[in-house]
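Lecture 7 notes: from sequence to structure.
We start with the chain below.
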Amino acid sequence: MKVYISPSTQEHNITALGNTEENIMHKVADELVPLLKSAGFEVFKGEKSDTLSQMVRQSNLLNVACHVAIHSNAHDGKTRGCEVYHYKGSKNGKKLANNIYKYMEPLTPTKDRGVKENTSFYELKETHAPAVLIEVDFHDNYEGAKWIEANIFPIAEAIAKGICDYCGISYKDDPYKLAIEQIKKIVNNL
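Predicted structure tokens for the same chain:
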């Protein structure tokens, strides 16, 4: 089964920690890809050099089962929470969004913003496959940006579990990746 992962192309969207949305979302995608591969998916991922239209075109040409756009949000420097968008009227897009949100919602440390319909987001409107756009949290909020950067792997894992549920595939914990994450947490706490 083929899946397309589309990390943010917003290289000028600066987080409260001085990073870019594009850099951080590519880190999430880079953790997500091997998790999906270990579950048996054939995974395609947009690169930093790709434009949004190129990623949508690639996704459509590859005839994937689902298209997952990964973003972080910005508003007023105070707002927090995850939200997952799907194209209005897409039953499968809504199902995919609900499956991913089911794992993201308990992970995030604040009240989340839910699953939402949208008809204007390019990736939701122009992809042939069921598509979602995940806003993992608000990066213009200092605590939100800090939480995102400290939880790259758990965010990727939540997304992987949601995709697996949507596709009817059992998620398999990757013991190697989990061990690395535990070591990183220990080192960060020294």
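Points to note: Residues 2-188 form a domain with the Aminopeptidase fold (CATH 3.40.630.40). The chain has one domain: 2-188.
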